[in-house]
Amino acid sequence: MADLVGVFAASHTPVMLNFPDAVSEQDRTAVYEEFTKLGTAIAATEPTSVIVISDDHLHNFFLDNFPAFCIGAADTYQSPAEHWLKVDKHTLAGDTALSAHLLGEALQAGFDPAFSMQLTLDHGVLTPLVLAGLSRQVAVVPLLVNCVQPPLPTMKRCLQWGRLLRDAIRSYSRPDRIAILATGGISHDVATPRMGMVNEIFDRQFLHLLGANDDEELASYAAEHVNEAGNGAEEIRNWLIAHGAAAGCRFEVQFYRPLPSWYTGIGLARWHVAPQ
Amino acid sequence: MSKSISRNWQQYMPTPQAYWIDRILFDVHHKPGHLEQYRSDPDAYMREIPLPAEVKALVRDNQIGAMYLAGANPYLLRAHCLGLRIPEATFLASLRAVAAEVSRG
After folding, report:
1. List A12, A101, A123, A243, catalytic entry
2. Is the pTM for the entire model greater than 0.90?
3. A221/A17 Cα distance (integer angstroms)
4. Angle CA A143–B15–A150, to nearest 5
5. Which of A56, A84, A194, A261 to mutate to test the interface with B (most CBs of B within 10 A)?
6. CATH placement of domain A3-272
7. Collapsing DSSP states into helix, strand and coil, what is residue A192?
8. How large is the average pLDDT for residues A46-74?
9. Among 2.40.128, 1.10.700, 1.10.3470, 2.60.40, what is the CATH number of B16-101?
10. Where are the domains of chain B?
């Protein structure tokens, strides 16, 4: 039986790669060091694969066909999708057996994900993996959540997806070690008149509620206040999936800093899951 | 939620007009050769697109704030500006100039 060996979350804004000098050296160094720590922590779980919960920023999906949830099922993934992202081209390894298992379990449980056997993954997956030093070291299974084009899936549904992931990992017959990395957020606006606004109050309350063991309150807060935190904050859906998968295990904020010059409240966190 | 707070999205369901603006922004940066075609003659590139001339002009003239108000997906808008190497200050100023006109509540 597979083990869920780690659950992590981190911001993924591409400005960390594209505009490194927009923030002070002190801030930049601090953020990069925290990503290195994250990479060390993930590597320490010795994962067979990492389920990366992110969103496709309209590269693979467009308004002619936009899934609310899509599980990647390829053996490899090219990245990045963006010709403007300042990072080396990558070929990320996939895990088709785990993808197939997650798809099957989701459908059996009454969820209806799309799947794709050809995805070119964007900064949402690649940026945190690169900064964590893991981009050429781990196999990934992407779970792409629509956080970028309304109508969007509900916050509650994302918590349910997390519980589904946990159950699916438990039922996986292979002796694999599976980690989860949710990416995106926290507060930020992309291409709106508010761009550059960071809502530190929202971010800190959201992080507080992730540790408060009250999923009802967490989902309500997320739904009712996300408009105060920017369209990029819609990516807290990915964090909620991770939270659902962690199923009440202790939550720890590794790092948080509001960085308006990077347009984002940068957060990194983990849930202390213990292998079953 | 207070009616005075800006919403995250101009449209909770894209209009057909927003779809076609997005179609242009997506194709220019994802289809081989389209960025070069667009750069060389944006009017010709958009000729078959079913949008009014004044909306095509917003795209051609990089009226970022106006495209945002018209419902362009913000991520496509951001990527378009990065792809066209529009200066960051110009990009932000165009958006901030329309702050009073955004959807609220």
Report:
1. A123
2. yes
3. 31
4. 25
5. A84
6. 3.40.830.10
7. coil
8. 98
9. 1.10.700
10. 16-101
